[in-house]
Structures are given as structure tokens and as C-alpha cells.
Amino acid sequence: MRIRALPLVISLCAIAAVPATPVTSAPSADILGFTPASARTEQEWEAKFRALPNPARMRADMELMAAHPHHVGSPYDRQNAEWILQQFKDAGWDAHIEQFDVLFPTPKQRALELVAPTHFVAKLQEPPVPGDPTSYQTAEQLPPYNAYSIDGDVTGPLVYVNYGIPSDYDELALRGISVKGAIVIARYGRSWRGVKPKVAAEHGAIGCIIYSDPGDDGYADDDTFPVGPARSANGVQRGSVMEMTLYQGDPLTPGVGATKDAKRLALKDVKVFTKIPVLPISYGDALPLLRAITGEVAPSSWRGALPITYKIGPGAARVHLLVKSNWDIKPVYDVIGMLHGSTMPDQWVIRGNHHDAWVNGADDPGSGQVALLEEMRALGALKKQGWNPKRTIIYAAWDGEEPAVLGSAEWAETHAADLTEHAVAYLNSDNSGRGYLSASGSHILEKFINGVARDITDPETGASVERRMRAARVLRAPVARRDDLRKQEDLPIGALGSGSDYTTFIQHLGIPSLDLGFYGEGGRGSYHSAYDDFYWYSHFSDTSFVYGRALAQTAGTAMMRLADADVIPYDFTDLAQTVGEYVGELKRLANGIASDAVEHNKEVDDSTLTLTNDPRVPFVAPTLEAPVPKLDFTAFDSATARLSHAARAYNSAFNSAMSAATTPTSFAALNDQLIKSEHMLTSDAGLPGRPWFKHLLYAPGVNTGYGVKTVPGVREAIEAKDWPLATSEMARVVSALDAETALVERATADLGTQ
To answer: Was domain 573-752 assigned CATH 1.10.10?
Structure first.
């Protein structure tokens, strides 16, 4: 989510040199996917690579790219793209810019006022902060707004709905509180922002206000900006509210690239806009609104950190909300660089980070983009020294990520056929800071990224980033699970939902993907605000840029291994184990719903809830629930067992073949098989109600947005108590797992012929 560039040329010799910290972690004795001879050569080149990323140059790059606001369609957005292109060319890459024309609305009119019982006009702006030079660029900034909110001019009673997620409306229903005809105010958190107006509209609301409560994002966490990193009373989180769980990319060209001649939907036919107007505000603007709400006191779990008694409403508080946008087509500029493969040029390894931002975007996306640029320069330097990647390497600086992963989605949709045939993996990063390596993605890459992490040195402790990550996992885990984590060969990686540029690659096209970054130390209170700038980042995040170097070392090493491996380094044992865990979760979910229904009906029958309700508090007595049928997971269990057996057989054959191999080119047929493996886990029909999402194991949840739903078709059917759909979706997943098993068995047979 970012980018930048200036016509200014910075001489690297003028930048204060910061010597690279030597890599102290001992490299692995072997590397997944490499023969012994190839591994030795790879380790030599990797050592050279990891010495090259330069924190001082990263600092200078960030300051340059974040010098001005660079949202989609802004002059500086294009300048940054052109500057990045020149960096690629200077480093020896074959590079170009691909332009797409996309719908990107920008604010035309915004207003929010309390009209009763008193009068208050929200400021709806982020004032400059003394000492922070770019915060004064107000004329260049996009003001706080939510992109893809419909236009609207509404007035109504104000109702507080906590985080505005479905369970909050269940609580309101128990209290007999309706939001029909009301404007709701919800706090950021617990779901993606676009879920909040979606669910509000489903319950009859006519408008939605979203604010950052200091209990979640502000003074309850840390000192506020500019004294500390936490969100100040004037800070506002911008962001898209497009219904991205239907599809991603340009709203007017779903499923196809937004090229010059693409057929576009009329605005009236677009299904991903909100149904009600939405506006984000600061907690400074939210305080008078929330203070004016009367009615029932909110439950304790609904109370934030503002100095008020949180009440739900509706009551005397009425607000007027006005949102109007300019609905314009804007260009996005994807910078694409290539290093052509020497022996397997038709297999592609792809790396990306976005360069556009909501405002100045030093953290998001600058922190990730400067790491990507250092990787790119280092790989270019290695090529000049004689290193030639076996596979083709593609690096991309995406545009338009912030509104709707526009640049990456349109590029991937445009090149979908080629990517499906040639792409080995996609590695993503976005913002990054200090702390612990975070890795999420395809579980066939779990063993691979663990191996990379063991060979990268944490810059502040000298341990490997894998060891530090493991220590953090152990400390945060329940005591009963800690020994298992200490002994586990591979640390589990997370599954991917949405919210960044990996989405189209893994969930639409079925390309194995990883998302990498460093987090856990330092605040995020600048997120999507005008204060996400160089001043904030250089004072409160990775101030020495050494974790930026660690990200470059991690992602760059991973790219080298994916590009140079004799055999594509997928592993299926972690996948099989993870799927087995998902099946266990689904069983517990179904059993929990069944037992909850039984208990609920007992409470209805004996009036437990009615008798224990405070008679002075409004209450709607619940009704009986239908009995829950028992789902049959036998076929699911059997498919998982077959995949696990095939994975173990593949590993045995793989280890034997790799240790004995003398002619790596003999693995060509095997690689041709492996490159199709993630596709086996997709369905051309897509998920129920949202066919753009084709992966059957990973997808953003309909009511979580960023948050992942694993085995989404089955899981969401169970949550919705749609038992016939749950059964049919299980059959689809079983079929996909069997297809994956068959591929692994064919790959094992190929190994047997080596």
C-alpha cells in the first residue's frame, strides 16, 4: 500500500554509509529443493546477497517517496512510479510501466453534524502538527473519507453499535433495539471496515460513521502523536469500504483487466459499493456525538476509553451526514521488472509491494517498498557479478492497492492465463516495522519459509529470525502448548484472508503465495492517516531501518531459493497436517452450534433468560431454534488421510532423489507437475455467492473482510446453519484434496524415475 518518487536525484555517496551487519546465523546444511552441489553454490551467492541491503539507502528512499501525498491519480504517484522504474533500469533489470484505468472516487462534499439535542459540527480534518513538515501539505492530501461509499444526504437518530459486527446486532436484538432508519456509529476493529456499513444496511440503518476509539487505537496503548506513536485525538483512519469479499480490483471490470478497451459496468450495475453513506472520523470528533447519546448503558464489553458513559440509544441524539464523491476513472502505474531465467525461463517467481498511499504513506506502504527496492538492487548487483537465476524473477511495485488492490488485481487478471501456466510463487509484503517475522500464506510453502527464516539474523538480538519468532510464539501460547511449539520442526504459518496484493494471486488464480513482514514492537497509530509520514516512521517505528534490511534479506533470500531450486520447494506434509487441523475445527464448530442450540432451547423452555433479565431493561424473549443435524465428516477425514500418506511418500522419494541427483535438469517433468499443485485446491465455480474467489481453503470471510476463513465454503455454511450447503461444500473440498493427492502421487512416481 504505497509508493513515491521525485525528479530529484540523490547521490548515494552523499548518504551517510551504514555498514551492513554481518550475517551471524549459520546457514542450513541443506536447502529444500537443492541438490548438495547446488546448495553449496546457492549459499555462496546468498551470503553475498544478504550483505548488500543498506539501511541508509532505505531511509533516503523512504524520505524521498513519502515527501508528498501520493494517492491514486496524484502527480506524485506518477512521479514515484517513474522514479522506481529508473531504479530498476539502473540496477540492470528489464523494466516497464503497465498502466490500467480504474474507478477511484475522491471526496467532493463531506459533512457531519449533531443537530439535536445540541449542535456540534465535526472538523473532519487532520490539522498540521508542529515539527512534522509533511503534515502541513493539506492542499495535496485526500481528506478523511471512505472510498466507494455511495453518495448520500441523511438525517436520523444516532445509535452506537460497538464494532458493528453481526454479533453486536444480535445483542441489540436481545435488547429490543432497532437501527432501522437510524445512523449508526461503530468503532474500528474486530472486522474490516467495509463490514460495518454492510451489516448496518442489512439491519435497516441509513448511514454509518466509523471512528477509532482510544481504547483500541490511541492513548490507552501509548503516548499519542507527536509525543508517541499512538493515534491522536485528530487522527483518522481512511480506507476503502468496497465489498471486497465479492471480488477485488477495479469495480467496473470484475474478472478482467482494466485495460484501455475493457468493457466496463455502468455505476448503477456495480454490486460492491456500500448501500448507505459512510464516513470515518477521529475520536475527537466522535466524543461529542457519543456523549449526546441517551438510552440504555452499553454492555461492559462495548465500552471504550473515552471519558463518557457509553450508551446505545436511540434517543434525543440526531445527526446529519452528507457524503458525495467525484466518481472518476484514474490511471494506476504498475512498475514491472524482470530478470530472465537461464535454464527454466518459463517458470516465474514473483515479488510485489505497493507504492500508492492514502496520504504520505511512509509506513504503509513505504516500509515494505524500500525493502523491495533494496532486494531488487542487490539481485541486480549479483547478476552483474555472474549470478544467473534459473527461473525468471519478476518484481512489481503495484499501484492502487489502498482502494481495492487495483494495480495487482488488474495486472494479474490481464495476464491470468500466463500466470496460471508459469507462476511458481508470489511473495508479498506491505508495511513492516520492528519485532518478529510474520509469515502467512500457502501451506505448501510452510517448510520452505521456515528454512529461510533459520538463515536470517535478527538485527537486534543476533539470533535467527526463526528462533526469535519461535520464542515469541512460545511465550504467547498457553503453557500446555509451549513444549509442542518448542519441539515442532516447522512453525505454523498463518492463512491469508485479504487486505493486500497477494489476494488475486492466491485466491483468484491459485498461485502459492506468502505475505512477509516484521511486527510486534512499535505502534501502528498512524495507520491510514495524514500522520503516516517520514517523521512518524523515523521517530517511532524501525528508526534505524535494520528491520527493513532484515525484511529485504528474508524476502530476497526466499526469491533466490525459489528461482534457483532444482526442484520447486513445495512440501505437502505441512499442508496435510493443516487441513487435518481445519477439519478438527469444523467438527468443533458444528458440535458447538449443536450443543449451543440444545442449551438455548433449554433456556427458552425454562425461561432462564427471561427470569434473569433486569425487568427495567428492555428485553426480547428468544424463541426455540431448530434441531441441528449431525454432519458426516467421514469423507473429509479419509481425504485428509490420503493426502497425508501421499505427502510422506513424496518426501521419502524426494529426499532420496535429491541426495543422489547429479543432473538437476532431469527434474523438468517433476517441476511441470508441481507447478500445478495449488491449482488443485481451487474451483472454477468459486465460492458460494462469490465466484471470483476460487480457492477452497483460504478466503476472506464474508463478515470479516481482512480476516481469513479457512475452508470458507464449509465453514460459512456451518455458521449460517445451512446444512445442505455445508454437505455439498464438503464434497467439493474432498474432491479438491483428492486431486491434490493424485498430483502428489504422480510427482512421487516422477521422482522414482530419476
So the answer is: no
